[in-house]
Structures are given as structure tokens and as C-alpha cells.
Please model this.
Amino acid sequence: MMKSVCFYFQVHQPFRLRTYRFFDIGDQHDYFDEYANRYAIMQLAEKCYLPANSILLELIEKYGKKFRVAFSISGMALDQFEMYAPEVLESFKKLAKTGNVEFLAETNDHGLSSLKSKNEFVRQVKLHEKKLKDLFGIKPKAFRNTELIYNDEIGNHIFEMGYNTVLTEGPKHILGWKSPNLLYCSATNPKVKLLMKNFQLSDDIAFRFSVKQWSEWPLTTEKFAGWLNDLGTNAEVVNLFLDYETFGQNQSKKSGIFEFLKNLPEAIFKQTDFQFQTPSQVSASLQPASPLHIPYPISWADEERDITAWLGNDMQKEAFNKLFDLESFMEKCKDKQLLSDWDKLHTSDHFYYMSTKWFSEGVVKTRISPYNSPYDAFINYMNVLTDLEIRVKNSCGDLKDLSANSGVKKSTTRAKKTATSAKKASASKQTSKKKTSSETK
Amino acid sequence: MRVLMFGWEFPPHISGGLGTACYGLTKALLKCGVDIIFVVPKAWGDEEPGSIKLVNASDVALNLQDEIFREYVDQISYVEVNSRLIPYATDEQYYNIMEKTESGKVWERGELNAQKFTFSGGYGKNLMEEVKRYAMIALEIARQHDYDLIHAHDWLTYHAGIEAKRISGKPLIVHMHATEFDRTGENVNTLVYAMEKSGMEAADVVIAVSHLTRQTVINRYGIDPNKVITVHNGVEPSEKEKDLNIKRNLKEKIVTFLGRITFQKGPEYFIEAAYKVLQRDENVRFVMAGSGDMLPKMIRRVASLGIANKFHFTGFLKGDDVDKMFGLSDVYVMPSVSEPFGISPLEAMRSNVPVIISKQSGVAEVLKHAIKVDFWDIDAMADAIYALVHYEALPETFKKHGKKEVDNIKWDQAGLKVKEIYQQFLS
Model:
């Protein structure tokens, strides 16, 4: 039977907020740090995206159908490529044209709506689908939620949107003795196939590649291919899920990471009988080994592999809840600027910056915060959100007048609204329960 | 291991952080088995009425009869010198003390088995002379005792340290709790500066209370970086919860500044930030507690900004009043222009008050659960104040972590580090 390596890269950059003071509230409505965002994108384009993309293109030209990878590029990253680095977008388009690269669906905002509101989650996925169609002319077939966040309920929602392949983390507390190197399916909906990240091998590249104290340093392609062989005959698929910034940013060019990428396929072809496949191919070609029950959300963050990096402390929960308090207003909002600002505030990075987990030592911090402390991050975010709230409520004053003219329409939307908010309440109860339990751990 | 230490008097007479720091460090050193001969200048008798007090408003009144301390009292050789030296003294202040205290009054120590050193001849005419006189006494003490090392705290005792080193040939460690630049900004007293510099140059090791102070010592005094070591201060463990029966009569949130109202503490930045907040939100009150040479100017500034109905001055606070003030506060701000360490935010945190501290403070190097701003950045300061009184999750998070963090900043760690430095010379 064929064994496969499934490479998937996350490409995402948030719209960073500018320093927004409380006296800007109600007065200034420009929230984003144009300079910092442009600088970050241009730096990454030069250090990571362009060189890595060109290596992938070379590999595809060299090996043809034998070499395949997958990407998920958040809407936030795509928007910023359009604004600041169109050449990056062009190089992704080139990759898309080869047909060897699969693009995955996700939320446009790279947000956490899957944990809170199905409506918003669906809206964000639709936005992202449209973007992929407009830019690359493709319709995605597999799904990757923000930071690999997943549980049974989210799986069901994803399935309802037409996807039966989902990428997620393969944490010990879920898999137990089971191997991550097999295809699984959801226990609540067996049609949902799950690809579980092999975090050992993925993180060897993503986090440990240049760590000289690591006993396996330096990591060569031969050694890595050897490890694949060591997995034995039972391994059917090895899911290597990485931040794309691993190449050139998190692991510097000097570390030899690009050479590693360039030479890995050859080593794998030479030493092993592994093939490269994309998530949809894997999902179509393998039989699920067993169903998995995942009641509480998992992710690829930290040792805990849970959602406490984004919604672990009171500040994060407060900011998140306040953001979603505006949802019912936003559903009716027609103001494009307002909608776009609201979307950008969903991005999970904003919540990640507020995490106090980094204060305890030994945590791998994968994204660098622009703030000095989580407190600064919270203050700035809340100032911006307060201004957005005022704008939303002002523009909703107009909406009220509009709906007053069509009484029938108004009552139906209201009924719908109460239904969804009741559902929301129960869903948020569940997640908050989970949060406290993971905190006490 | 025996150390001749030129320190400052223990509680209750504590002027700012210096006395507290000497007390905490000495206790920690005794705990890890270091013998100490402690030499202190005695400026006044107990509770001398009429003399001006340079006691920092943020003082903790620690009791000399304190049981924990009593354990160590027997292990310590305590030498008191009749001297009018007081920490943070300027020439003018020294003159005032001389005016207001009856010279020659002998103070009885009482219960402690302290040894009093008498020196013939009166007090020095001015501060510098007194420093010299003190150094001469030190020479005499240094001759009479046996020890391995000399450790001197802050510039007033450096002369004494140098003399002791000269007579004994033992290594000298000087401890920089504050520099002249912290106290006066750029208007340094060149005599004081020279004395600090010569003390550090003569020393074998200079201990700085923060990286900030260490940098000042290296950059402004030209001291060899290899011999300057940072040892962060600790903080005394919380006393038992006092029941102060604090009743809040005001519905507004209260934002507090508590400290000497001097250049070093940056009171004017607090006022400017308060003005910014009040323009947006009337439901906040600001309190400036303490006294100092800049107080009249501050009152005038508040009046001219037209915020006097929301901005209150309490004057000098001490003892329970300090705790009460913390109990009433929702936010504590320490906007110091230059603060070698800064212990008061830790006391605020112990009372569950969230703190905003200037990045130009040593304490900012050790605290995580505090909002840190540049002292001059009144926008950031105002923003932090606004956030703490508006976004509930923020003070909640601070309360959750703050007290725990403070309780972990212990003198024991500082004591161990200083002992390590001592040991370098003995091996």
C-alpha cells in the first residue's frame, strides 16, 4: 500500500493595530498600523514567501506529479499581499496553476468564530471561498480551521458547508495510544475525515531545526527520511503541518532550512517508499482507521493543544465576548468599511497577544507580539473595540428607521435572532466550561 | 564570614527605601550564615519632636521589636554612631536638622544590646564635614573589629568604607541604592557626585539595585562594567491582613500617586495624565499623597488646569493612613523619572491595587503584572488609567496575579546573591 507525506503550510498575517488611545475613541476610526503591517509583509515576502515559493515551484518542475503540498492562506494575509506585496500573490498563483498545490478553505478573518457563532463562522468561510475563487480560480475541497482548532461540533458545521476532509492537531490526550499516522473520522459524523498532525516530526522542523542544544541537531534530510522509515509499516500518512514562516523567519536562512526543504523530497524518494499527497488525496485514498470523539476544542498551540492561548484569561474572554456582543448588529450592517474593520478585529492574533501564559517560562512562543505585555494588548484592543461599538450602534440607529417601514420583515428577523442567540448562549456556556476546566489543569 | 557593614538605621526610622533595603538584606544575609557588624549613624533620638522628617510617604513602618528580627538581633554586632547623617539629606536639610535638634542630647537605645560609639567633639558644621567626621569614626571602628569584608550602603557612608579599607586592607563592596542623577536629574551636586565616584572607584565590587542603576553607574560614572553587579531588591513578606475598616464614600474610581513630591518622582506627569483622563471621564478622582519641594508648584498646576474639584492633595501620610489610601485606590501610579528600584508599587500590589509604573524604574525589570510606560509618555499613562477604570477584566487579571507575584520577590534571593559575591573574595 502507498504511504504518503502530507505537507501543509499555514500562511497568515494579522492586520496589526496601531497604538489607539482612549481619547481617539469617537474621533479617529483608523485602527491599523499601516507602516508595521506593510513592513512585516515586505520583510516576510523577501525572507520567506518568495524564496520558499520559488523552491516549491522548482521541486514541482523537477518531480512533476510526485511532489505536492497544501496551503491555507488566510483572507487577512491575502488582503495584505494585494495591498503590500502583489508579487507574493503572483507567486502563489503560479503554484496554483501547476495543479500540484492544494489550497484549503478556512475562515477569512483567521478568527475564533467557530467557538462562538455558527452564523459568523459560515459567513467567514464563504468570504474565504469567494476570495480563493477570485484570486486562484479554485474551489477548495478540504478544510483547515484557524490554528487547527477543532471539535466534534465544529466538524459538523464544516461538513454542513460541504467539506468532508478536515486538518487538525494530533494531541496525545485525544489519540492516546493511537497513531497520528493514520486517517481518522469523526465519531459524531463518520463522513468527516480527520488528518491529524504528527506534532513530533512537524515540530522537529518548525521549532527545533536550529536549536543547537537539541540532541538531534543538525537535522539532515537523510536523518529525517530515516525517521519516516522508522515509523514502520503501520504508518499510512505522515501529516507535516507547519507555519510557512518556518522557512526563513522562525528558522533563519543561515540555519540551512531552505536547503533542507530543497533536498527533502529527494531523500524521501531515495530512502523511503513515501509519496507526497495533498489532504484531499489522502482523504480519498485511505480508509479511516477508527472514529475519534473530540468533545472539547483542540488546536496546535502550546503543550496543552487547547484554546487557552487565545481564550485562557479574563481579558481575552472579555474582549472576545464584547466583540461578539456586536454580532446581531453586524448581521444587518451594510457599511463595507465597518464590516471590514469588524472582520479584522476577529483575527486570533489579537487575542493571542493578550495571553498571560508566556509569563511562565518554557513556552514556545511562535508569534511575536507587537506589544510589551498582554495588558497593553488588551488596553489597545478594547479602545478600538469601544470605538467600533459606537460606530456600529450609530449606524444601527439608521437601520432601526429602515426596519420600522417594513414591519413584517422586522418581526421575522427578530424571531430568527432570538433563536440563534439562545443557541449561542448554550454553545458559549459549553466552551466556557471547557475553558475553566483546562485552566484548573 | 564576617562583614563590616556601614548601613542605615532600621525601622521605625526609615527614610525611603534605603532603610528598608538594609533591613531586608541584613536579615537575609544573617539567615544564610553571614556574620555582620552593623554600623549606623544615629541622626536623632527616638521620635525627636520638631525635627523635620524626610520619611517617604510610602514607608512601611516595620517594628524593631518584630519577632522575626529579634531572632537575628543576638547574632548581629550593632554599632551606633552619634551622627546627624540621614539618607537623602542635602546640605540645606542637614543644616535644618542641626538647627532644630538639641545638640548633645544623648539617645538611649533601650532594649537592644547595642554598643554605642562615642566620639569626642561635636557634630560637623555641614553635611560634608559630617561625612568626613563619620569616616574618622569608621576608621576607629574598623581598627577595633575583626572581619573579612567591608560593605557600604550609599554615598554618605562611602568615605567610611574607603577609610576602613585603607586601614584593614580588606575588600570593599559599595551598594548603589540611588545615584545623584536619580535624585536631582541633571542638576547634580558635584561634591556628592565626586564622593559616589571615588567610593565606586575604590571599591572591589559595586552592587547596583537594578540594571537601570548599573547602566547609570557605568555610563555616567565611568565605572568598569566588570565590577558592577546587579542585585535586585526584595520585598518584605506581607504582614497579616489588617482590618482597617475602609469605607468608600465616593462612587468615583480613585487613582493615586503616593510618594515624595520631588523631581525624581515625576508628579507633574501624573497631573498631566489626570487632566487627559478627566477631559473624557468625570467619574474619576485623583489623589496625590505625600509632600516635598514640588508640592506648591503641583497645587498651582492643578488649579490652573481647572481640575481641582477632582484632584486632591492629602499631604504626608504614614502608617495606617498609607494602607487606608491603598485600600481606597483603584489604580496606583508611579511615574518616576528615575527610580533605582521603587518599592511602593509592590506595596500597592500587595493591597490588590493594580499599578502603572514608569519604565525608568528598577522595579519594572522584575515585575510582569504591571503596566509599564515611559514617565514622559502621558498619553500612554492616561490610556492605562482609563483602561483600568473602564475595562473590568483588566484590574481583575491584575488582582489575580499581582499579589502572588509580589510575594515571590524575596530578600532571600538577594541575600544569596550578595553572599555569592562575598565568597568570591574568600576563596
Observations:
- Confidence is low (pLDDT under 50) at residues 43-73, 100-122 of chain B.
- The CA atoms of residues 136 and 317 of chain B lie 37 Å apart.
- The longest strand of chain B covers residues 35-42.
